[in-house]
Amino acid sequence: MTTHAPAEAFASALGALLFSAAEHAPPPNLVVAYSGGRDSTVLLHLAFAFAQKHQLGLRAIHVNHQLQTAAEAFVRHCQHECATLAIPLEVVTLDVARTDKGLEADAREARYAAFATRLQANDILLLGQHADDQLETLLLQLLRGAGPLGLACMPASAPFAAGQLCRPLLSVRREALAALAFARGWRWIDDPSNEDHSLARNRLRSELMPVLLRQREGAAEVLLRAVHWQAESVGLLADLAAIDLATVATSEGLLQRSRLLALSAPRQANLLRHWLLRQGCKLPNADKLQEFLRQLAAASDKVTMQWAEQALRVYGDLVLLMPAWPAAIEQIIVWSAAQDSSAPVSPLVLPYALGALRWQTVAPARSDASPVLTVRAPRAGETVSVRWQTAGLRLALPGRQGRRELKDVFQEARIPAWLRPLWPKLFYNDTLVALPGVLVTTDGQPTTSEASWLLQVEGPLFSLATALRAAHTADPQQGN
Predict the structure, then answer these.
(1) Contact at 8 Å (CB) between 132 and 177?
(2) CA distances from residue 233 to 93, 158, 289 in whole angstroms, order as listed
(3) For 88-119, how does the pLDDT look when each residue is reduced to its tens digit (9 = 90+)?
(4) For a Cys staple, 288 with which of 128, 284, 329, 386, CB 3.0–4.6 Å?
């Protein structure tokens, strides 16, 4: 891999991206992530010239993390420079939530989240990372013990939110950017946080990188070439995982445990990582992933793995991904009913991102297997609520004698035992009228003189149950 002059590299990287989409999309809009520092200043000016030449839309976003006293000075500088070039600028002010990941990681996540919410379908987000940033990332990943995916470092382009991101200066050394900025007389502000050696990247930049690059002539290009080979390896591993996924996945997108275990151990891990990434998940660490695969051979539905906000669970011969929901829910939520019983009420958003319940006046068009239930409208004086803790509850069902235990109803509906404590139950006063997405009880049936509403369910809980039911229909041994 060879490094390039800034303008040449910018035009080459962005031109390749535009050419690949030219036949299928209108000209994109360029969105510059503009911090006010030297690198993003070069990016801004190159983007300005490129947009003018090719008649593209251009705007900039400045993120104020409010983490240093110079933050407002950066905002004013960016506003002035963008006004001089007549580039629309949006300033986004953040309150960075602190976690145990560290300040750098927290600020980066907040910044990218801000970019994501502002990117539209035809936008290309331009980021100013350069070749030296890539080298620093490589060393940081090596010190973390990263595998090929981490050692491939930052991609030059990738889908991002509703649009795409592009790093058009990734083949350009820092010194070339500095030379161009000085030669053109462009104005920037030096970020004082770059001198904070408590930050890992700054320590590596000032202490380790100069020593490493002095070891041989062309060391930077050699290391960047290694990044390129890692990126190629990641692509090949993804191709292999896609081949394996075609034989291991069910039509509902779940994994079959027996077929996963038939692969070699490295291919199991490779497939699992690929499958999780396709679903937008952050990957668990390697030790946790290996431990899950080790336990997977046990014929037990108790094999689980939880990390971040996700969990893997085994159900019969299925491996499924789900949010890291709690084991049980103690809440009772009152769902405000309309005064006019012929009108629907506001949707009810369930806790822990389980999903939502929604009343409809007409049957919606649906593509999944969760039934839309016809429930009588609440009578005068009845309070509508959703509950979870209902120990000892027995149900009267239409067309059946006596009452049935709730666990038997769930079992007949093919809802596994570990999902049942999370399932919402719809009550009028203290009377159970429906299990949303499953059935209406005798007490919830409308009479011929009563108004009725249509109860619709949506969200991860119900989608997961639908996928499990579909897998069982295709193979009755699943989940037994």
Answers:
(1) no
(2) 39, 17, 20
(3) 999 999 988 888 777 778 888 999 999 999 99
(4) 284
